[in-house]
Amino acid sequence: xxxxxxxxxxxxxxxxxxxxxxxxxxxxxxxxxxxxxxxxxxxxxxxxxxxxxxxxxxxxxxxxxxxxxxxxxxxxxxxxxxxxxxxxxxxxxxxxxxxxxxxxxxxxxxxxxxx
Length: 115
Prior knowledge:
Its main location: cytoplasm. The chain is built from two helices and eight strands.
């Protein structure tokens, strides 16, 4: 049996932009992606603490040390600049693998940068 478990989590980042005219996705500072073991194109769940919205999209890297968290395309309608998000990716693995697995958890500062 395979189960979904949390692979990566970036906890409480602030939306820095929303670009409705982009083709889709979320742009994340590449430093945050690397720290959370998230790769370009990976499916990600976005939880908006301000309005309760939950959505899924894919990740594209933003400039390092920029603190960028930009929702693109239709997802831009689900956020406002300054909203606080939790970003989560999942992996499928066996129950035995899951018992030993440790997710990458990242807790950025108020400027969306690593502490």
